[in-house]
Every structure is written in C-alpha cells, then in structure tokens.
Amino acid sequence: DRADYDEEVASVCPFCGVGCQLSFKVKDGRIRYVEGLDGPANENRLCVKGRFGFDYIHHPHRLTKPLIRREDAPPKGLNVDPANPLTHFREATWEEALEYAAKGLAELRAQKGTYVAGFGSAKGSNEEAYLFQKLIRQGFGHNNVDHCTRLCHASSVAALLENVGSGAVTATFNEIENADVALIIGSNAIENHPVAATYFKQFARRGGKLIVADPRGVGLGRFAAHRLQFKPGADVALLNAMMHVIVEEELYDADYIARFTENWEEMKTHLKGFPPEKMAEHCGIPAEEIRAAARTFAKGRAGMIFWGMGVSQHVHGTDNARCLISLALMTGNVGRPGTGLHPLRGQNNVQGASDAGLIPMFLPDYQTVTDADIRRRFVQIWGGVWSGEDFSAEKGLTVVEIMDAIHAGDIRGMYIMGENPAMSDPDVDHARAALAKLEHLVVQDIFLTETAMFADVILPASAWPEKTGTVTNTNRQVQMGRPAVPPPGQAREDWRIITDLANRLGLDWSYGHPREIFAEMKRGMGSLDNITWERLEAEGAVTYPSLSPEDPGQAVVFGDGFPRAGGRARFTPANVLPPDETPDAEYPFVLITGRQLEHWHTGTMTRRSAVLDAVEPEANCSMHPSTLRKLGVEPGGMVRLTTRRGSVEVMARMDRAVAPDTVFIPFAYVEAAANILTNPALDPFGKIPEFKFAAVRVEKA
Ligand code: SF4
User: Fold this and answer.
1) Is residue 371 helix, strand or coil?
2) Ligand 1 centroid vs 41 CA: distance in angstroms?
3) With 300 labelled, which of 8, 121, 266, 372 sits at a CA distance of 20 to 30 A?
4) How far away, in angstroms, is 348 Cα from ligand 1 center?
5) Whether pTM exceeds 0.90
C-alpha cells in the first residue's frame, strides 16, 4: 500500500554523482519505500539503486555501539564476522571509545605529527568532509588527508585545473538538451550514471548525434551515430587522431581559439604526427571511422564531452583528459549553451568533498596549501592550529602513497571515515597488509567493513538517510540532505563524532548544527557565495557559481574567459604512451575493472540491500564468446584470474560487449575482490592508479 506511511522526507540519493532528489516514505521509524522528486538533475527519475537501495540502513549488521579491539583478539585480518564482531572487539561507551581513539592518535602526534594520516569520505556531507580535513590540518599540522577522488577523477581534475583553471564541470549534463552533438567516452553511463544516461538517450532520440567511444560495447552505443570500440588504453591515440583530422580539414574554430586559448601553434604542430591512418591499428578502429567521428563532432553547432573512469583510471589518465579539453577548445565547445566538458563524478559527494578540501594538495575551493597567504587565512578562520602559527606547506600524501608510507614506517596511525581501502585500493593485499601494520587505526563507519576489521577502535556512524547535511553532485548543484530516521542504537551523526574527537585532541570546536559548519565553510570558499543554508532548505538545490541571492546558479561557465592567467585556457599536447604493464605470454589478456548497475563500489551498502543483492548475488566477470571458447569455459563456469599481484576465482559470463582477450570484473565482491588483481602504478599528475588495465591470465577453475 503506497499510501501507508506517516512521513515523507525530501533528500538526495546516496549513491552516484548524478544526485537525484528523492522522497523517503517513513513509517514506524523505518523507510518503507522511495520515490523520485523533481530535482534539477533527475526530474522525478530514479534508477534501481535509488529506488531499492535504501534498506541497508535497517540491516542487522549495522554498528550500534562503539567497539574496541580485545586484548586477546586474533591477529588483524579479514577474519571478523560482520554479524558477530564481539569475537574480536568488545563494546565500549562513547566516552571510553573516543578517549581511546584520541589517545592513540595523540601519542603518535607527540612522537611526530606526520605519523598520522586520514581518509575522509565522499559519501558523507560537505560539512563532514570539511571538518575531517580541518581535523587533520588543524589537529596534526600537515596535509596527509585524502579520499576516494584519488581513485576516481583525480587525473581529470589535474588536467582541468592545469588547462581550464577549475576542476569542476563547465556545464551540467542536462545542458545536453541544447547540444546537437556529444562525445561520451570511457563511460558506461547506463550502468554507472543511469539517470544521466536517460538524458543522453533522449538527446539521441531528438536527433542529437552521439559519439560513443569505449573499449566495451557499452549500452549507449545502441543510440550512437558513431560507435568507436577502441582498444583499452588507446584514448590518446584516438583523440589525437580525431584532432588531427579537425586541423587537417580546418574544422576548428579559429575565432574561439584566438580569443580564449593559448599554445595553439604548438598543439597544431604536435597533432601532425597522429594521422588516423597511422593510429588506426593502435586504436583497433579503421581510419575512416575515426575521420567520420571527428567530422561529426567538429561540424556540430554545440557539442559536449562526457567522460568516466575509463578515461581517468590510467597511468596516462591526465593525458587522456588533456586531449578531451583540447578537443573541446579547438572546436569552441566551452562556455555556450549546449557545450561543455563534463567528467561524470562517481560518488554522490565526491565533487563536494573535493571542493571542501578533502585532498592533500588543496584547501577548500582548490586553494593550494603551498601558498602562505591562503594557509594564513584558514588558520585565522580556524582560530589557530595545534602545531603553532601555521601548518605544513608541503602537499600531503595521496591514498596509494599513504599505504606505501605505512609499509615504510612513515605513517603509523590512521583515522578512516566511511572509506574502505581494504577493498577499494589497487593491489589490495598490499593495502590490507599496511592496515594490519598500523599501530593505531580509528575507523568510523556504519558497518564492520573490511577496513574496520583492522581497526583498534570503531565508532558507529550514521547512514545518509539518518543525517542532515549538504552534498554537491556532478553538476555543481549543492543540495540539502535531510534525516528520515534516527541512527540506530548509539550510532551518531559523523559531524558530531569528528567534533568530539577533535576536542579530545585539544582543538576547541563548538558546533551545534551542520548549518554552523556550512557558515564557516562559506568564509573560506568563494564558490559558495550567495548560497546559504536557508536557501538550500527552501530551494533544495543551488548550482555554484550563483551570481546573486536569487540566481539558481550557472549551468554553463566560462563564456567570457577562464580562471587562468590572461583568462585563456591552454592546449597541452599529449603523447601516446603504453600502459604500465602489457600482456605477455604469461599474462596474455587485459583486465578491466568497474561497477555494475546494482552494486555500489565495495558492496558495503548494496550487498545488504535485499532487492539489489537478489538481482546480482554473485561475484562475476565477463568475457567475449571467443575468449570463453579459447579457454574451454562454458558461460556460468568458474575461472581463475591471476595477475602479478594475486588470484581470484569467479563465475564467468558471456558478454559480446567485452572485446576479445579482455576480461571485465566488477569490484563489489569481497569473496573475489577485483583489487587483489589491479595494478597500483600511478598517473604522475593525478596520482590515480591504473584500474583500467592490467595483464591477466585466465584459467578454468
Ligand atoms: Fe541514485 Fe545515481 Fe541512480 Fe540517481 S542515477 S537514483 S543518484 S544511483
């Protein structure tokens, strides 16, 4: 009975960066069901995760009391039953757990401030992300704080900051309704940003020309005018070849280039070396198809470019994004309605958490930690820092670097909130060994995650439908999240836990409500000008930048220049480079990891959602029929996947969308953790690992 609820609460979906607004229907303290609301990014639509992925909050595995590791607990490892953590932990009061957590961190701080690092979360609110980075910087005096943006779009942001001057999207994805051509590359949007994909499909249905480029034959290809299934890792070769055609056939926008860009001559010269005929074999696509796609994009009246982690998660991810930026600039496709660069953000609040400074090289609003004036301004806002008058000017370590630093003995304690590196890091056995080595690990989460299994103290936190806070989606839309139900048992809202811990570390915080944290953020973040808590409560969403208290925000930015010196964007040429490891006789296939529609990242929430887990209950990988035949494996049979890092056994599916001699594996399943296999080699600029290319051996299990 859909009328059978006592209360409806307007909030935002906790899964992907689309940021669909929804309504929780609540009865007797439980969410009964969910409906889409008319938010700016979703217009009442929801995907299967938004609609059915809410009951995890009522799951019996929820952490409801603080836990401290027992003195007689077995050695740290993935050896705890989430249904029965008391084999390894004992229950504690909040007072005792917070004291214990703070004491261990303070002892390490007293030895050397940089012994402690923090991972915050893109699944919490903006206010929580802000507080978390503030705790590390103010409380420990350095910048060793990061979150999963490092595994997501760090390379895209590096390229955008370098060449455009801003890390956020230049246009909302909804702007596609004003475009007549769009390139979607390295993104399986139908599964990963499903509601955004509905806009892409409608665009094609109206006659818009979609160019879908991906090593997998992704579903959006069915709607495409051009479908380019290029070889894994050949992004730069393909994009340089397309740009070569645009230069050769003089399809570029000379006026735009002259007015708004720099380094064009060098770019033009560079592109001479990449004719499609020379790149065709590298890309695995006939030269004429590359030429045709280039012409379609360049001849469009208004074009947009969307990309996902197929572009960013490479050791040359920043180069890939540089090419996309150059393609948009040379065709004059930034700053007008229906144009723009749009990296589709993964987590619901990865944009907001990055904006809030939850990254090791930037304070809020991407203000560099190396600038003394900027640091001084934040020290002033915070009322001082633990270590004296300033905090470190040195950029902090990133996610993967922190794990290496633990092994090297340079990091000995961590505070991890809402992240699960024991599942999400590349070469995850290396990360798990690092977590086991920590002298003091504080984990704040809603479940006993694989990471929490390594903790010394666990602080039970709140799920998204249990908290008040703002989130920022892929469109730069700041939206208001509201609590539908209280946290279970003694679990608390994360901002309260961070505040309590900060005060036990000697900081003097006194927040009474997230709106007070938001007000403090506004003092250091120009992006939030004209966006107030009251507006968000009344309007539900405001896009930044907002030019006045009445302005709903700018869907398209940079129409009159870029936030770089001279107001010009830059062409940065990129060369074709190999992946970090290439297939050979021992490891002859290519492994690509990713998500699937029903499960979210490391599976912590969606594998505890009854409908989603019923639809996709089993660890799996996908291969082309020819690959399965070659291996003598029937669809549904088990295979062993082995890389230079380790092995997993997993059920094999037949999927014609996967290229021959390639294996696709989702990373949500702990029983066959894809990241046991992945390569931790990093892009030198964004420090993102190469999740999208590893050499793998496949055998019948
Ligand atoms: Fe949630 Fe993303 Fe699905 Fe929207 S598209 S309902 S934000 S998972």
Assistant:
1) coil
2) 10
3) 266
4) 8
5) yes
Report the SS3 class of residue 249.
coil
Asked whether the CA dihedral 86, 147, 49, 461 is positive or negative, the reply is positive
Provide residues with CB under 6 Å of ligand 1: 13, 15-16, 18-20, 42, 46-47, 49-50, 193-195
Distance of alpha carbon 498 from alpha carbon 404, whole angstroms:
26
DSSP 8-state secondary structure symbol assigned to residue 284:
T
Residue 201, CA distances (Å) to 13, 74, 197, 222 in order: 22, 53, 6, 9
Q: What is the largest CA-CA distance in the chain?
A: 73
Alpha helix ranges (H) inside 78-125: 94-111
Distant-in-sequence, close-in-space partners of 474: CB < 8 Å, separation ≥ 6: 17, 18, 19, 41, 169, 173, 193, 196, 342, 343, 344, 345, 351
Distance 367 CA to ligand 1 centre (A): 30
> What Cα–Cα distance (Å) separates residue 634 from each residue in 199, 420, 626?
37, 34, 11
DSSP bridge pairs for 213:
185, 228
Distance in angstroms (rounded) separating the CA atoms of residues 239 and 242: 5
d(CA 198, CA 326): 27
Q: What is the pLDDT of residues 275-293, one digit of tens each?
A: 999 999 999 999 999 999 9
Taking only the tens place, the pLDDT of each residue in 116-163 is 999 999 999 999 999 999 999 999 999 999 999 999 899 999 999 999
**Over the stretch 612-651, which tens digit does the pLDDT of each residue have?**
999 999 999 999 999 999 999 999 999 999 999 999 999 9
CA of 51 to the centre of ligand 1 (A): 8
Residues 6+ apart with CB under 8 A from 565: none
- Residue 263 confidence (pLDDT) above 90: yes
Structure tokens at 644: 């230079």
pLDDT of residue 1: 85
Q: What is the Cβ-side half-sphere exposure of residue 565, based on CA atoms within 13 angstroms?
A: 2
CB distance 115 to 145 below 8 Å: no
* Element at 321 (helix H, strand E): helix 317-330
Q: Which atom of ligand 1 is nearest to the CA of 473?
A: 7
61 phi/psi in degrees, rounded to 5: -75, -5
Confidence of residue 113 (pLDDT cuts 50, 70, 90): confident
Query: 545 preceded by cis ω (within 30°)?
Result: yes
Q: Which residue has the tokens 């509905």?
A: 198
Q: What is the 3-state secondary structure (H, E, C) of 35-61?
A: EECCCCCCCCCCCHHHHHCCHHHHCCC
- pLDDT band, residue 422 (cuts 50/70/90): very high
| Number of H-type helices and E-type strands within the chain | 23, 30
Instruction: Yes or no: say if 192 and 48 are a contact pair by the CB < 8 Å rule.
Output: no
In contact, 449 and 423? CB cutoff 8 Å: yes
Task: Check residue 512 and give left, alpha or beta (phi > 0: left; psi -120 to 50: alpha).
Answer: alpha
**Which pLDDT band holds residue 387 (cuts at 50, 70, 90)?**
confident
Separation CA 123–CA 681 (nearest Å): 25
DSSP secondary structure code for residue 233 in this structure: T
Report the alpha-carbon distance of residue 593 to residue 690 in Å, rounded: 10
Place of tokens 């989130």: 471
Radius of gyration of the chain (CA): 24
Q: What distance in angstroms lies between residue 501's CA and the mean position of ligand 1's atoms?
A: 32
Residues 6 or more apart from 451 whose CB is under 8 A from it?
416, 419, 420, 421, 422, 423, 435, 443, 445
Q: How far apart are CA 291 and CA 307, in angstroms?
A: 20
Residue from 11, 12, 15, 48 whose mutation best tests the ligand 1 pocket (most atoms within 8 A of CB): 15
For residue 68 the two structure tokens come to 């401290």
C-alpha distances (whole Å) from 245 to each of 210, 242, 331 are 18, 5, 12
Amino acid at 610: A
